[in-house]
Amino acid sequence: MAQTNQNKWVVLAILTLVYTFSFIDRQLLVILAEPVKADLGLSDTQLGLLTGLAFAALYVTLGLPVARLADKGNRKNVVSASLAIWSLMTVISGMATNFVQMLFARIGVGIGEAGGSPPSHSIISDYFEPQKRATALSIYSVGIYIGIFVGFTIGGVLAQHYGWRVAFYAVGIPGVLLAVLIYFFVKEPPKGRFDPPQLSSENLTLSNVVRTLMGKKTFVFIALGSGFIAFGSYGAGNFLPSFLQRVHGVDISKAGYLLGISFGIGGGLGTFLGGYLADKMRRSDMRWYIWLPMVSALLALIPFGIYLFSDSLNVVVWMIFMVSALLGAYLGPAIAVTHSLVSARMRAFSSAVLFLILNIIGLGLGPLTIGFLSDLFQPEYGDLSLRWAFCGIFLSQTLAILFFGLASRHYLKEVLSG
């Protein structure tokens, strides 16, 4: 057991690195949006499609069968193969010469990444006992913001000095090497190690899993709340480099540096603290797993409004840091709540269903909607069109707060009933 306890932190670090690579590959196009737009002759709507729906469509739908494969088989092998696929497709993204080629390349990245997170969530839940899962899952989720930090800072510098195509090659090739590391050095833990024997030995069908999840009001509301937080995070986040370049006149390298610090570090700090504090606060009431993200989403509305309309670049950067930290608090607790509602053999699939809802609303619709609104407002507002397009996020955040509140009303009853 001592060896397992020691190994679990190594495994968590490796899986977090994998998640970091997924977000470097996923977000690289975000920081490269302006040069790619100019080179390929794209509109903001097409950029929103490439950074959102094109990726999300197969990412979320293929996540379901891949997660069921992981629940039944070797989860580590699924993660390794998926990483190799999305890294190769990132390299291919750098070869695109028109919108259609880039579209299919980003779809390919989405196909690969479909097998990343759900199996990793399940592995982590079998390495860490229930009272520490939100912390472990939040540490894993910090990979999102490490990836954003690296993608923004390195991508901006590479694009400015060597061109946007080189940036894709530089981050795709190391991912293939990491896939080999996963295959040989991560061990598959026993499924349901911390669960009662009767639960961990269940042979569950796909329909049973879906029926169980959809029968939990807590899950439905937590998934919808997470989706509308992600709508704002992806909707604004995927256009923040363009926002800084158009509205505040900074160059791509400086935009990458500023956002790497504010968005990347702020979001990473908030994501870790969200899970850590929720694990601590659960001792007084388990509903803090839901209340904490709800309160954080409410507080985030204030700095969000400030950074939209401030003319001071320094103020904008600090407010982006605060918004990112506050909105990052939801993910670890949301995954932990989901896993607490199901048995061990449902966990990878339950994460996939959570991410299906979260990413259809957030990643699929967020950037596409903001891009469409920006194009709609552009004739009247010019380079300020993104500022007014971002205002739609006030509505999505309000919906997220409402759904988290509804989830908290059902959680105790449903988690105790099993």
Shape descriptor reads: globular
What is the radius of gyration computed over CA atoms, rounded to a whole number of angstroms? Answer: 20 Å
CATH superfamily: MFS general substrate transporter like domains
> Portion of residues in helices?
over 70%
Provide mean pLDDT, rounded: 86
Protein name: MFS transporter
Transmembrane segments: 6-24, 45-66, 137-160, 166-186, 219-237, 257-277, 289-309, 315-337, 349-373, 385-407
InterPro entries: MFS, MFS_dom, MFS_spinster-like, MFS_trans_sf
Subcellular location: Membrane
Could you please describe the fold and organization of this structure?
The chain is an all-alpha fold and 418 residues long. It has a single domain, classed as Up-down Bundle (Growth Hormone, Chain: A). It contains 21 helices and no strands. The chain has helices spanning 2-31, 33-40, 44-72, 75-93, 99-113, 117-127, 133-141, 143-162, 164-185, 197-200, 206-214, 217-237, 240-247, 252-281, 288-309, 313-327, 331-340, 347-364, 366-381, 385-389, 393-417. α13 (240-247) packs across α14 and α14 runs antiparallel to α15 (288-309). The longest helix is centred in the N-terminal third of the chain and has 30 residues, at 2-31. It starts with a helix and ends with a helix. The relative contact order is 0.16.
